[in-house]
Amino acid sequence: MHNKSGRNTKNKENPPAIIGLGVDLAEVARIRRLAERSPGFLKRFFTPGEIAYSHKSKNKYERLAARFAVKEAVIKALDAKRLPLKSIEVENTASGRPLVRIKGRPGARLLVSISHTDKYAVASVIAFG
């Protein structure tokens, strides 16, 4: 099958459909307070890898807030309010791009963007079906 330009369109894949979009903003100071007041806070909401990644930086609370924002944005994008935050793990590729893995959902296809300052962290997630 050819389109009007004469290009073969038979073998082209359909682009994936967007099934959800999630955005979240987290206050760095709030994450800092929760972590300092309750020693179990970090272990309850973050994976060991996320904690280790954040603690090797001088701006660890900014990194933790960014990961928290990603987790909330993933839940919104997937419309999965019962998904435990700790089952969502934020990693980085070799180039530094954020990558999300969800325990129990190995096929989840997500695009993630994170940004943070010393006061706020924001994340956006697009889920594809």
CATH H-level superfamily title: 4'-phosphopantetheinyl transferase domain
The biggest beta sheet reads: 3 strands, antiparallel
* Total count of helical runs of at least 4 residues: 4
Strand content: 25-35%
Question: Low-confidence parts lasting 5 or more residues at pLDDT below 50?
Answer: none
- The assigned CATH architecture is Alpha-Beta Complex
Radius of gyration from the CA trace? 18 Å
**Biggest sheet, spatial arrangement of strands:** 1-5-4
The 3D shape can be described as globular
Please provide a written account of the structure:
The chain has about 130 residues and is an alpha+beta fold. The protein has a single domain (about 20-129), classed as 4'-phosphopantetheinyl transferase domain (Ribosomal Protein L22, Chain A), CATH 3.90.470. The chain has 4 helices and 5 strands. It has helices at about 30-35, 40-45, 50-55, 60-80, and strands at about 20-25, 90, 100, 110-115, 120-129. The protein has a 3-stranded antiparallel sheet. A two-stranded antiparallel sheet has the order 2-3. A hairpin with a 3-residue loop joins strand 4 and strand 5. The chain starts with 17 loop residues before the first strand and ends with a strand. The mean pLDDT is about 90.
